[in-house]
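Quick one: structure tokens for this chain, please?
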Amino acid sequence: MPIRSSQDLVLVRQAVRTWSAELKFSLVEQTKMVTAASELARNTLDYGGGGEVTLQMLQDGLRKGLRLSFEDKGPGIPDLDLALRDGYTTGGGMGLGLSGSKRLVNDFEIVSKVGEGTRVTVTRWK
């Protein structure tokens, strides 16, 4: 799904809610995944200049999951450790976007190269 405007953020949240419900995530699990998706989509738009998110349903034995991969071709993040620290922000927010998203999911991976862009992949398992 493209992330190019505020309207796309709404569509991402709706898709994540729908897919989470299809996977029979509890309301709390759905809310955690939608919240993480919202934060990461907003970062993709605001800091990465737009990009894309890929949604993927997973099956690992008896457990099911939802993986979201947000990717942009923006300026990249020069210091990932600092960017993942609670309270750190380069914008006007509270500095909880990346670190908060990390706490809301089971698996979190971030790869960023200055001048090339950033990819954040999160997974929540049922």
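The first strand starts at residue 2 and ends at 3.
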